[in-house]
Design goal:
Strand content: 35-45%
Number of helices: 2
Order of helices and strands: HEEEEEEEEEHEEEEEEEEEEEEEE
Strand order of the largest sheet: 19-20-17-16-23
Number of strands: 23
Helix content: under 10%
Distance between the termini: 91 Å
Largest sheet: 5 strands, antiparallel
């Protein structure tokens, strides 16, 4: 009987010690990110314990509860007793690897004494360098109007140096490598190239873009480790199309950008474009469409009407009248893909 009591006492003591160790162990129950995060997003950490009093909830602070490397300026806020948010002042850097390390400041205001979790370091990164899209449109060569060329705006998810890109970029049409001209000289996330149509027509053929490994992100130390590939089909020159209508801002002034699959022919465009509610507008062409400028107000919706007589430089028209509602958002402009009405 004595042995049983002794054994029971030991078991109870060990259980109490075990509960004491595990009961006061802080645990990260959840977080709102995995390996990849967006450039602009908050980091949210949910714990299994109440860690702060009511007085600290919903109060922004610069207290370094979590150390982020490379350093990111921002603030922390407890949205509840067990949930902590980090919000960057501007954004995270493009194409960058980060680590977040929990510090003991997380538990310093806790009502009980807690130790940090065994795992306190979390690795993540912003999206690595990639080619997002290659917008295509037909144009006449600026110096020789008899020369037709296919132009493509290469849109990356971060800025690159055009000279570095040219060293690594290959263009193929239906599997055949073609020469191209770099039309961009400034570091940007959008690089324009022109592919001369010197022999056989490019109409309705496939376009393949490949970029060898070694392309550097201009905004960080990241260098691409694998080949970047992008494939799309080339529109026919005799099918003039409106590709995209979007509301944009410049110096807080709203305007509408209309993107087409070829340059717009010289016409009296103001007679072909109307806006509802009615506005005095000015139309300016650009190499892949035209801008509509007027007194567009943030937060308002407008309907743009485009007459079917709108013509491309290769003679085609849009065949049918277009109508599209465009919303100028209060914070960010909304993009509207064209619909036939």
């Amino acid at each position: 009987m004595l042995l049983n009591r002794t054994t029971l006492t030991i078991v109870l003591v060990l259980s109490a010690l075990l509960f004491s160790c595990t009961g006061n162990k802080l645990k990260l129950d959840d977080k709102n990110f995995e390996e990849e995060i967006e450039l602009q997003q908050n980091l949210v950490f949910n714990f299994n314990k109440d860690l702060v009093p009511d007085s600290l909830i919903n109060v922004w602070a610069e207290e370094p509860y979590i150390t982020i490397t490379p350093a990111v300026k921002g603030k922390f806020k407890w949205t509840s007793k067990d949930e902590l948010i980090f919000s960057p002042d501007i954004s995270f850097l493009p194409c960058t690897d980060y680590t977040a390390v929990l510090t003991d400041k997380i538990v310093k205001n806790a009502p009980e004494k807690y130790s940090l979790p065994e795992e306190i370091t979390y690795a993540f990164h912003t999206p690595y360098l990639n080619l997002i899209s290659a917008g295509l449109f037909w144009a006449k060569n600026d110096n020789n109007k008899n020369l037709t060329e296919l132009r493509t705006e290469l849109a990356f998810n971060a800025k690159v140096n055009p000279a570095e890109l040219k060293r690594l970029l290959h263009v193929k049409i239906n599997g055949k490598e073609e020469s191209y001209v770099l039309n961009s000289s400034n570091t940007s996330d959008k690089i324009m190239i022109a592919i001369p149509e010197t022999a056989a027509s490019f109409d309705d053929k496939s376009l393949s873009i490949s970029i060898n490994a070694g392309l550097k992100c201009a905004e960080s130390n990241y260098v691409s480790k694998e080949e970047i590939k992008y494939e799309t089909s080339i529109p026919s020159k005799d099918k003039f199309q409106i590709v995209l209508i979007e509301a944009l801002y410049e110096d807080d002034k709203g305007y509408i950008n209309i993107t087409t699959n070829q340059q717009v022919a010289e016409q009296n465009l103001e007679k072909l474009i109307t806006i509802e509610p009615a506005l005095d507008i000015k139309v300016e062409t650009h190499e892949s469409g035209f801008y509509v400028k007027g007194g567009f107000q943030s937060g308002n919706s407008y309907r743009i009407n485009i007459n079917k007589q709108l013509q491309g430089i290769f003679g085609g028209t849009i065949k049918e009248n277009y109508q599209q509602d465009v919303v100028f958002g209060a914070q960010e402009p909304n993009i509207s893909f064209v619909n036939k009405k």
